[in-house]
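re: that chain from earlier
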Amino acid sequence: MATPKLSSVSPVRRDDKPCAPSSSSSSTVLRVQDASAAEAYEQYLRLPELSGLWKAGCFPEWAGEGLVKPALQALEVTFRFVSLALSDPRGYASRRELARQLESLAAREVELVSALCEGDRSAPLAELSASGGVLPRERSASEVWQLPGSAAAVVCQASEASLLPRLAAWDKSETLAAKIMYAIESQMQGCAFTLGLGEPNLAGKPVLQYDRVVRPHELHALKPKPAPEPKSGYRNRELETLFTMYQILESWLRAASQLLTRLNERIEAKNWEAAASDCWILERVWKLLADVEDLHLLMDPDDFLRLKSQLAVRAAPGSDASFCFRSRALLHVANTTRDLKKRVPWVLGVEADPNGGPRVQEAAMKLYHSRRRGEGEEAGKVELLQAFQAVEVAVRGFFFAYRQLVAAVMGTAEASGNRALFVPAEGTDPLAQMFLEPPYYPSLDAAKTFLADYWVQQMAGASAPSLQS
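^ sequence. v structure.
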């Protein structure tokens, strides 16, 4: 088998060393600059109480509880967002477009939930087979569905506490709720159970004990308590919008953190295919986070900027800190995601050369070029390396979109002066600095570059005899 010719000047960076992921060892660690601002952010969103719902270990036998629960809670908060958007009395509110985007967001959340639940057989379930097609008297939220082409009936047990069945009964939201329910029915086809939110469940699968897992009553109790402004008496509706949006964001960040923990465990266990699956889910989570942030574009400019001033989003006078997430979870997930680059030598089965030699790059080229790259111990490695680079694209895309979002929502002055998220290594804007730093996976980039050169030379050599003849 022909081996691609290697370049003698193809450095492998020291950050490719196979070590355990640690945000403190990153070359550019993202940090919260103002701890008091981060504390205020967490208290404003009631994150200490929300995190109590994430961490509650109610189901010791369910290994995926810590991962799936915050994702389901984010979905439930999205239902609350739909209710807020459609009941907004302001004549200038973008109710129709916001409802469309929330429907799309909910569908993507359901898709991610189904991906997280695939293969999970330890979740707390309620069996439907015992019903015998009879509607229980004590459960007013159950529905009977007739199976197509059969006399059999299925009792679909719906959640009594979730907002989705209530949205389905409200004339303003019944169409939107129906679309979400059918999205659940479609996406959960590959899972051993369904969510039990009013979807048809024509397969008659067991239903997740949604109310026990998500605890909607306690979740919806953690909502803002808007008070009129002292002088004007004006109640700013964007307060509830902003609050709900960031509870969704933080819930998905919690799920992403748990997913990264499982991903690293699977890499350590050399379960490459399962790790690649988790990595692709992580890439979709980063894209979902960007979609949540994009909802800012539908907030009314005057009401949002009024709220921004009221909440003192800008830092204290004399500071260069401006609008920011102030989210420790976001920065932790970003750092941990970037630290996946330290896993590349472990995946390839080599050690990085401390002198900057092409050892990792050469191993990557051999893997990419091998005719047995999808067999035996190599199964899943290429998919995992591809997923690593896809996640890098998603992370950079998220922060680039965030920078543009700040300019669109609050003006270019805020975007150009935004330094609150990071402690910059230089005096430049740290968001811009992120895109000037080297790629996360230089050895993989170099391997593909030289492999492409090899095939160009091969094709040129193959075509030369035909031209002479």
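Residues 76 and 235 are 25 Å apart (CA to CA).
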